[in-house]
Amino acid sequence: GLPQRKLFDAVKLVEPQREYDEVRNALKKISLSRPDMVDQDEFVEVIAILRQGDKSGGSGVGNAARAFEGITSERAYERRTILKSEQNTSSAHTINEDEREEFTNHINLALAGDSDIGYRLPINPHTMQLFDEARDGLILSKLINYSMPDTIDERVLNRGKRLSPFQITENNNVAINSAKAIGCSVVNIGSQDLAEGREHLVLGLVWQIIKKGLLANINIKLHPELYRLLEDGETLEDFLKLPPDMILLRWFNYHLAAAGWHRRVSNFSSDIKDSENYTVLLSQLVPTECTRAPLHERDLGERAEQMLQNADRIGCRRYVSPKTVVNGNPKLNLAFVAHLFNTHPCLEPLEDTGEHAELDDYLFHDQYDREARAFALWLNSLNVDPFVNYLFEDIKDGIVLLQAFDTIFPGSVNWKKVNTRRPLMRFKQIENTNMAVDLGQAHNFSLVGIQGADLTDGVPTLVLAVVWQLMRANILQTLASLSSHGQRVTDQDMVQWANRVAQTGGQAQPIRSFSDPALASGRFLLDVLNGMKPGVVDPQLVTPGRSDEDMKQNAKYAISIARKLGATIFLLPEDIVEVKPKMILTFIGSLMAIHHT
Fold it and tell me: What is the mean pLDDT of the chain?
């Protein structure tokens, strides 16, 4: 048999004129008897399909796609690929070829020289090769670690030129569950979708991963000088509620104002199409290299090209072309501006005065950050709308909390009584949050002294208390539904389960509770994982767990193995090392859930 990755090269020996996508589309029309392997008779069938396509007027795939969408001209079809499902002829998905090309270029640059997948690069950005290369989860996992370093312990990845379907599923589990852990929305994506190279799903996930990396540094802890972007009368608290892309627009406008320019931007599409704002931004960032000369060019395409030549002089010609600037592609233009910020923020450091005392207070009092991050990720995994970026702000109108209650306790929310028309006045928000508190009390949450107004005001300890009990209820309810007797599962039941499974997987001593100091080394959790699937933990990679670094390595290894087994994990290695009982309960709960299924 011939590995599927080698098919195009083999076809070229017989049919030198063939393009990659032609061969790929022909392969889609046959059923392989073995995953990722093409047998001799299947190879012959691919050649026959290609030749049949010649007789019927060339590559029939493109023509069929155009007809399907009612597209009659080449101009209307430009830079879009319409993907028609072989299984469901009534469904089709469109992917943007410019985005596919630029995302592929990003991957080629980011992962060049990687010891595991370097030999597979560069991926041809002008074909659909990206979706075939992403099938085994390796490229996606590596991309996640490039965007958000140390998310995945790469020791758990299955590597090699020929992976079994089971190994591919494990890698894709790691990729999907790690993408969830960095805040990507993967509600409708499963490991099989990646293995099948479902183009629109893969491209959407790739963009989310790239975007997370590009926006990761737009953070006031990493760049305290972002404090300069606060507007008159704006508090730091209000500024911190802005999502990163809005802060990026604020940064863009800050430099336009500093340049004395009369225009401002409010989006990454229509406001940048004529390249004027870009030209002024670049000349403000690096005036020695970037002039305003492009403003004198009347043709928009040529002006965009001149502006990008300026960007090239400072090493920032990435993600966009003159065409995607003029067309106002919002994803690619956001990526371009984020890259400019990451390489040339050009914000003066803050002076050591009392003017930014509130920033100092924020930077030294962020003890709620890790829990808030985990709870926001969990809420997003329930597919709440809107997406939760800043927990204490985004739950204040109660709507996200009520969505969570309705997901966990179906039918519990009377939506006719919920105020949903945003923006809501404060008293309307409190009506919603009071309803959330009432629902919590009805389900035996411990909410003594908590009122709806506390949630609307974003009181950290009280918001975390409510959301934690929602998350815990979700875990326990899931476990009860999976148990043979359907009875409520207690914390002690979970401790006993973990001890039983750990006994079969290693030598660690039993724990008494989720606050047991012995959990800090990570070895007990690794024993639980090994008990669930003997051999999944490589003992050579387990440290004694005595130093902080040793403990963190074990914790990272345990988290990535859990994701490999299919668990959705939101805690960080530090939560294990510091023995955070709530977070460790979520870890064990997720393991119990996949063990029972």
Answer: 89
What are the contacts of 194-197 at 24+ separation with CB within 8 A? 194/134, 194/135, 194/137, 194/140, 195/35, 195/135, 195/136, 195/165, 195/168, 195/169, 196/135, 197/131, 197/132, 197/134, 197/135
CA distance 111 to 130: 13
pLDDT tens digits, 536-575? 999 999 999 999 999 999 999 999 999 999 999 999 999 9
Question: Bigger pLDDT: 221 or 289?
Answer: 289
Per-residue pLDDT, 14: 86
Residues 6 and 134: their CA atoms lie apart, in Å, by 15
Strands 80-84 and 92-96: antiparallel
100 and 217 in contact (C-beta within 8 Å)? no
Tell me if 373 sits within 8 A of 571, measured CB to CB. Answer: no
Q: Please say whether the beta carbons of 155 and 541 come within 8 A.
A: yes
Q: What is the mean pLDDT of residues 358-386?
A: 79
Q: How many residues does this entry show for the chain?
A: 597
In this prediction the pTM is: 0.87
Distance CA 169, CA 334 (A): 32
Q: What's the N-to-C CA distance of the chain in angstroms?
A: 35
